[in-house]
Design goal:
87 residues; mainly alpha
Length: 87
């Protein structure tokens, strides 16, 4: 009787036979880790993306703006001339 009880309780622990309890624990841990990663991604995506306590200041005029305006005109009337036509 004791041999039959020992044979039924250790049926899943023999060589070549799956240990169901170990597989279930591994599956549950895997699911919990995946769920934690999904929750972290959701919280990260829903956070308020606003700058807080960021120092900002203007130190002087830009040297790039006059250089660009001397080479490229921002006049909208100049843009209405068709390509290839002389104004």
């Amino acid at each position: 009787m004791a041999e039959q009880l020992a044979a039924t309780t250790s049926a899943g622990t023999g060589p070549g036979k799956p240990n169901v309890t170990r597989k279930a624990v591994v599956a549950l841990v895997t699911v919990l880790v995946a769920q934690a990663l999904f929750a972290l991604c959701l919280v990260s995506a829903l956070q308020l993306l606003v700058l807080r306590n960021m120092p900002f200041g203007v130190v002087g005029p830009s040297k790039v703006t006059p250089a660009v305006t001397s080479k490229i005109s921002l006049d909208t009337a100049a843009m209405t001339v068709p390509i290839g036509a002389t104004p």
